[in-house]
Amino acid sequence: MTQISGVHVSGADGELGASIVKELLEMQILYPRLPNFPVYAGVHHENEQSSTNALVVKVDPVSDPDSAIHALKQVSKLLLLIDPLSGEVTRKDVLAFAKGYINAAKQANIKHIVFPTPFSKLDTPYSPPLTPIDDDNEERTNVMRSYREQFEAIESMLRESFSQSEITILRYPGVLNQHLLYFASYIKKNSKMPLIDNSYMTFECCDINDVVRASCHILVSPIQRHCGKEYKITGPNLLTTDEIAIKASLGLKREINVEFMPIKQLKNVLMETTPDKEEVAYLLELWGLQGYLGTARKVQVTRDLEIITGSTGKSLREFFENSYDAFTSSQTDR
Fold first, then answer.
1. Domain ranges in the chain?
2. For residues 334 and 329, what is the distance between their CA atoms, to the nearest angstrom?
3. DSSP states along 20-51
4. Neighbours of 102 (CB within 10 A)
5. Rounded Cα distance, 273 and 285, in Å
6. pLDDT band at 115, cuts 50/70/90?
7. Is the peptide bond between 125 and the residue preceding it cis, with omega within 30 degrees of 0?
8. How far apart are CA 43 and CA 49, in angstroms?
C-alpha cells in the first residue's frame, strides 16, 4: 500500500486548520506504529507560528502560485481546507484560493487530496434547503456567489483535475456545536437559543473536534484506504428544535428555550459578536443547513465517523456540559 511522504494542511492559520495540524503531530507520538512523516502548515503570513512542531510555510496560491507548487512538492497528501472563519479567505477569493492549490497539486503530483466541506448535497427529500438570503443585504446587488455555490464549484474542479481514486470528500454539515459559541453571550443573557425561524426544521449536528479527528484519521491512513470515498461527519440522528433545547437544558443545568428569528434578526445578533461581515455571511449560510422534513418522521443520517475512527462522536449534550462556563454567567450558576 502507498505510504505517506508528508501532509500539507492549507488554511492552517485558522482554528480548524491549526487543530488538525496539532492533532496530526500528537497522533504520531501517541501511536508509534504510524509512519513518521512531516506535517506542513500552510499559512497566509510568515509571522504566523504554530504552537506545535509543524513546518510552517507561507503559501499564497492566488498571488504567488509558485509558492504553492514548491510547498506541495514535498508531500504526497493535501488537506484542502478552506475556512472563512480564519479571517483570511472571503467570498471574493474562495475560488481563486482553491484553484491555485488545485493547480499546484496537479503540478506537484499529489497522490491524495482530502477536501472538507460544510455543505451537504442538495438532494431531496431530506437534504438542506438553499442558503437563506437577506434581501436587504447590499452585497447581494453585486451578485456575489454564495459560499455554498463556490464550495460546490471547488468539488467540480477537483473531479475535473483528478481521478476519483485520488480524492476524498469529507462533509461536515451541521457544525452546530462550534457555531453556538457565537451566540454564547445571547444565551447567557436570555437563556434562549436563537435559530432560523422555522419550527419544522430538523438539524444535522456534529462537533468540530470530531471533524478534526476524522480528518486526521484519513490523513494518517494508507492512501488506498479512503481514496475515492465520500463521507459525512454528523451525528447518527437528526435533531428537532425541541430536542436541541432539551439537550442544552440538560447540559447547562437550567431551562434553555429556542427563540425563532428571521434571518435579519439572526444576522444582527451575530454582528454583536463579530463585526466581520464575511464571517457573518458564512455563518448564516451554515445556519441554513437544517433539513425540512415537515410531518415525515426523522431518519438516520450517517455513522461515517465510526467507520473512519472506530468510535462515536461527541453529543450535543456533552458539548454543552464541556462548554458550561462559556454559556453560563455567574448570575445563573447553580
1. 6-173+208-233
2. 10
3. HHHHHHHHHHH-TTS----EEEEESSTT---S
4. 23
5. 17
6. very high
7. yes
8. 9
Cα-trace Rg, the chain: 20
Instruction: Write the single-letter amino acid at 147.
Output: Y
* pLDDT tens string 209-228: 999 999 999 999 999 999 99
C-alpha 138/C-alpha 148 separation (Å) is 19
| Other beta carbons less than 10 A from residue 222's beta carbon | 13
The domain made up of 6-173+208-233 has a fold known as Rossmann fold (3.40.50)
Locate 331 and state its grid cell. Answer: 448570575
Phi, psi of 314 (to 5 degrees): -80, 135
Residue 227 amino acid letter: C
- Residue 59: the pLDDT is 93
Other CB atoms within 10 A of residue 296 CB: 11
Asked if 306 and 233 count as a contact pair (C-beta separation under 8 A), the reply is no
Length of the chain: 334
Say how many C-beta atoms besides its own lie within 10 A of residue 288's C-beta: 18
Question: How far apart (Å, rounded) are the C-alpha atoms in residues 133 and 264?
Answer: 9
Kindly indicate the confidence band of residue 94, based on its pLDDT and cuts at 50, 70 and 90. Answer: very high
Helix, strand or coil, per DSSP, at residue 17: helix
Q: Which of 120, 43, 44 is nearest to 289 (CA)?
A: 120
Question: Does the model's pTM come out above 0.90?
Answer: no
Say if residues 217 and 306 touch (Cβ distance below 8 Å). Answer: no
- How would you classify the pairing of strands 201-203 and 291-292? antiparallel
Q: 3-state DSSP call for residue 291?
A: strand
Position 88 scores a pLDDT of: 86
Q: Which helix (H) or strand (E) holds 78?
A: strand 77-79
